Structure formats: structure tokens, C-alpha cells
Amino acid sequence: MRGKASRIAMATIAFIGIGVAGYLTYIHYSGSQILCIAGDPCKTVQTSVYSTLAGVPVALIGLIGYILIFASLLVPEREQTRLSTLCFTAVGFGFSVYLTGREVFSIHAICPWCVSSAIMMTLLFGLSVWRFLTAGIASSPIDSGGTPHQPRAAQGGDAMRARA
Questions:
Q1: In CATH, 3-139 is 2.70.50.80
Q2: Which of 25, 46, 85, 133 is the residue whose CA sits 20 to 30 A from 54?
Q3: What CA–CA distance (Å, rounded) separates 86 from 134?
């Protein structure tokens, strides 16, 4: 998966994340019953003491995070924007790990909505790392047939001089 394809995949995942986090934020503020295939665990997690951070719902924090990731994928691609996306996804991944730990070890309930968000954030972080580390490789001299220190055109010129 190269450049544009990875951005599209990441933007799609982030857009779905916006939907999940937006739904959970709506549930938090509206007090509506959460739709959950697992039954009570979703409600247990959503209403736990860990569902807010300094009075702010973690679902809202997630929504803001997904929006930032999505926006960082819409701006023109440069090293700085790839780094921004990497930083946003690293923070999101770390926060997801923390929240998953709270679900397992403190709340003793697993919410499928939260698990889906953690999976999406893990995918986004992994793709961000890959995208950041592989940026520009396709245009390197190695891929175009040259050596790391000598472009292909220079090699061809040396070969012609050697034959003469």
C-alpha cells in the first residue's frame, strides 16, 4: 500500500472512528440507552467513573482525536503532516491502551464499541508508523536501479566511459 492508498485507508478508518466516537458522545450527553450486542457491559463502561477525564467524556476526547487524525490526512502530504498524523495516532493509541486496561482491570466489563475504537486506533497508529517510515522510498536511487550513493544515470555514464 503506497501513498495515496494508505491515506485513503486511514481516512476511511478515521471517518468510521468519528462515527463511533460521535455516537458514544451523543449517548453520554443525551442519556439515551446505548445499543450494545453484549448487553450491560456497554452501560457499565459508559457510566463508570473512568468514562470522564477531568469532567470531559472520554468519548468526546476520542471524537476530537479522530477529527484531528482525519483532518491531518486531508492536508497536502509533506513530512510535517505525516509527523502530525503519527503524533495524533500515537496519543490515540496510548489513550486506547489505557482505557482498555481500565475496562479489563478496573471496570471488569468490555464494551464492543470501545473495543472497535481501540482496534481502529491501533490500525491507524500502525499505518501511520509505516507511512512515516516508508515515505519517499519509491523515489530513492535504490528503487530506480542505482546504488544508495550513486543515481542510475551516473552508473550508466560510468559504464559508457569504461567501454570507451
A1: no
A2: 85
A3: 13
